[in-house]
Amino acid sequence: MIYYIFSIIFLLSIAPLLLGFIKSIQMLLFYKKMVSIFQPYRNFAKLLKKEVVISQESSSITKIAPFLVLSPLVLIVFFLPPIFGNAFYVSFMDAFTITGLIALSTFFLMLLGLDSGNSFGGMGSSREAFISALVEPAMILNMFSISMMAGDLDIAKAGVNLSSHFPVEHMSSFIFAGLSFFILLLTETGRIPVDNPQTHLELTMIHEAMILDISGFYLLLIEMAASVKFVIFASLFASLFMPIGLELSPIFALLVFIAKLFIIAIAVALIETNMAKLRLFKVPNLLGVAIVFAFLSLITFYVLEA
Amino acid sequence: MIDFFIGMFLATLISALFTTRLYRLLFWYSMNSLALAFLALYIGQDINDNPLIISGMVTLIFKAIGIPYFLKKLSLKHQINRSIPPNISVHYAIILIPGILVFTFYLAQPLSQMMSEHANYVAISISSLFLALILMMQHKSIAPKIIGFLTIENSLFLLATTATGGMPMIVELGIFFDLLMAIVIINLLFLKNEETA
Questions:
Q1: Chain B residues whose beta carbon lies within 8 Å of the beta carbon of residue A305
Q2: Can you tell me the distance from the alpha carbon of A252 to that of A255, in angstroms, rounded to the nearest whole number?
Q3: A152-180 burial by CB neighbour count: b if 16+ within 10 A, else e?
Q4: Which value does ipTM take for this structure?
Q5: pLDDT at B157
Q6: For residue range B141-170, what is the model confidence (pLDDT) as tens digits?
Q7: Which residues of A touch B102 (CB under 8 A)?
Q8: What residue ranges in B96-161 does DSSP mark as E strands?
């Protein structure tokens, strides 16, 4: 039980660090002076002190929505696969639950964008709806396929099963699911081929457009939600698609897990520096590839059992 | 491990189907051949078959490095148009490709009863044959069609390697020399294409 609580606190607290790490790797690759990897924490502390300004046109949704954006994501963190072997974990979340909870969070983010009544908010919300509609089928197929391979519909149990005996005979469907999930990771966390988290360019912004009007504590909540979303996806990728190190002693298991998270962060940073952002109407092509791979993983598993 | 390389083979082929740039297509073809070469080397080492190891090495040198490099040089020399938008739009391809895969997987079901092992590899190589045909079909210009032709050869090699444990090396080498001849002829084809365009 103590490991369970520790791992939740650990995941929530390492979340901003990962984003800071990605940022500083990017700065290094651009030959710029590196930002400290603790910069997101400083931003959060700064936002906490700032005053909250709410637009006159906005309704009570603006006051409620930031909490409802963050809370489904925090809920997911409780049901993630365990970091330590033999640790307590909650068997609750299957492919549909996780997709639904992420969709709930996205729904309130879209409401928040629409609520302030400025044109950017509506634009950002419509783009987000467009992308999340394409993400969901791939996500469900993907999670379903990996849990079939692990032999249990529950995701936390699937992580444990994969680590205890890796399905070598299902290697090819495992690869397809992994490729598809990595595309989903980039898409859902708003990284570069789909969305650029650093700019406020009106032609391309998606996530930033929805939160233009938010300030102070509410902005802090939204930013925290973005970082928690990244850590959820990174930790799912680490537990389900790199299933090693769970059987080690707790300290080593934790170290291996942190190493896996940082490897994912480095991969994301490398992709961000080496790729151009896709045009909005090219994004369905990328997600189409994700859907094809997810579906392929499922049919390879069922028909060929490979 | 064989499953891993076969998975990579199919994954790179599907990525090649969605590309719209010639050099990216060459890169995916090279990755496809690389997966195939490692597969041949791995199986060759596994069943201790020297000819298969030699074919794997030849695949690695010629198909993964030589042919993409040579085609890139050729397309630079003849200034081939590098933008190759596929004829079949991506939205249809998303439905078409899984459809083909399901179809070929079920097509190969009777085969799997005949063979005791490696039945699903046969299914995957037949489906990659079909996907390579799609690659040839969906482009109008000559360069991607050539890549499609080369990919068909790759999937035939995969079929031969996995279904029979390697064909005789003399056949394999014959096919390699055929391919090299084809590349020389393709040079002429590019030249012709340039004259008519």
A1: 120
A2: 5
A3: bbbbbbbbbbbbeeebeebbbbbbbbbbb
A4: 0.80
A5: 85
A6: 888 888 888 898 888 888 888 777 666 777
A7: 299, 303
A8: none
